[in-house]
Amino acid sequence: MYGGDEVSAIVVDLGSHTCKAGYAGEDAPKAVFPSVAGYIDQMEVDDPAAAEKNSDSAQDPTNLDKPKRKLYVGNQALGYRRDHMEVISPLKDGIVADWDIVDNIWDHAFRECLLIDPAEHPMLLAEPCSNTQQHRERAAELMFEKYKVPALFLAKNAVLTSFASGRATSLVVDCGGGSTTVAPVHDGYVLQKGVLSSPIGGEFLTDCMLKSLETKEIKIRPRYSFKRKEIRPGEFQTIDLDFPNTTESYKLFSQRAIVSDIKECVCRAPDTPYDEISYSNIPMTSYELPDGQTIEIGAARFKIPDVLFNPSLVLTIPGMENAAEMAHSARGLPQMVMESINKCDVDIRRELYSSILLAGGTASMQQLKERLEKDLLEESPQAGRVKVLASGNTTERRFSVWIGGSILASLGSFQQMWFSKSEYEEHGASYIQRKCP
């Protein structure tokens, strides 16, 4: 179908937190930017009736007389504060809820980050294990009809992570931004009956961190809300800037960016389950905020990561009361791993226990791998066999799905697997079910 290895396919992984895109065969994605969009409604905001109708139609994707909204995608566009700009994610529970934004995100990745014409490159898209048939067909339609791609392939996140570590069978624990998913992969196929997911992901932990800082009276100032002026060499004065028209969602987006960095710098999973008494006199770690104030973080460094293992800890974080229901229903990581393995056939359980793969941005947290292995050793029946694998390189953990796609799409033996444009024209979008299992 294609001559030799000169395919130069493009791999796109649209995650709940960031979108990764780049050329197959490379070892890291070229474009990495937030998978959210800022939008401003192009309507007279002072006409309440129109604004009312507008909010209704925004909720209803089938409403065709949509108001014109201007979308802003990418690091630069989102980094710039605009009046009345809301920040919205196109995904709900990992599944696309707003195709218009996804289209804009893809477009930004192709035309502005990679500077390519999508009509000249086959596309490999990573999709969540829970993706539905109509979503897959919709993605195929968009790619072939709008971007005119020559060929397409949809691959499951867990399978790509498995390939990235060179395995055909493994249990993939993907701690992403929006959720944590555990999926068993056997011989390159996801075993759907064993897929479990929990709503506790990196963004949830970031929110916990934000709330716990706020209860200590620490104010996180978004970068747009101040400017620093040098009064004497090395001495700065911070001047507050006031933008009354900034939306709540944009303020939160900017605060989360800072808190997320605090989380990545100071948090680590505790070696033993967290309890207030033993962690009360732990030494503080300092962190300098963008506005120059230095904050001290103590027990929260261990408490917040431990929410992954024990979701009910959320109830002890002031301000997170609205997550109570979620804390009761969500399971900790070790329980999810055990439950997922027990849903699989007996004869592959041993193999799954011995190759548990950690992936996703949240998985690069310090000590997470060691703690998960320790908890599983205590609970699992095959104690001697438990092995949690995670790449030592945090970039690889963050981008494992993308890297798996990059390896897969550049294999010579994979080239006959593509769902080509001519097949699409002949059989229609539903044929993707047969081409991409």
Structure description:
It is found in: Cytoplasm; Nucleus. This is Actin-related protein 4. Involved in several developmental processes including organization of plant organs, flowering time, anther development, flower senescence and fertility, probably by regulating the chromatin structure. It holds the Pfam family Actin. The structure is a single chain. By secondary structure, the protein is an alpha+beta fold. It is 36% helix and 21% strand. It has a domain at 202-327: ATPase, substrate binding domain, subdomain 4 (Actin, Chain A, domain 4, Alpha-Beta Complex), CATH 3.90.640.10. The protein is built from 16 helices and 21 strands. The strands form six sheets. The protein has a six-stranded mixed β-sheet, with helices on both faces. Strand 11 and strand 12 form a beta hairpin. Helix 5 (157-164) packs across helix 14, helix 6 (202-215) crosses helix 7 (248-266) and helix 10 crosses helix 12 (368-379). It is globular, with a radius of gyration of 23 Å. Mean pLDDT is 90; it is low at 1-5 and 46-65.
- Number-wise, the strands total 21
CATH superfamily of the domain at 202-327: ATPase, substrate binding domain, subdomain 4
Could you tell me how far the N terminus lies from the C terminus, measured between alpha carbons in angstroms?
20 Å
Our estimate of the beta-strand percent is 15-25%
Any guess at the CATH architecture of the domain at 202-327? Answer: Alpha-Beta Complex
| Rg measurement, Å | 23 Å
The biggest sheet, with number of strands, parallel, antiparallel or mixed sense and barrel status, is: 6 strands, mixed
Topology-level CATH name of the domain at 202-327: Actin, Chain A, domain 4
Number of helices: 16
Subcellular location: Cytoplasm; Nucleus
Family: Belongs to the actin family. ARP4 subfamily.
Pfam family, one: Actin
Protein name: Actin-related protein 4
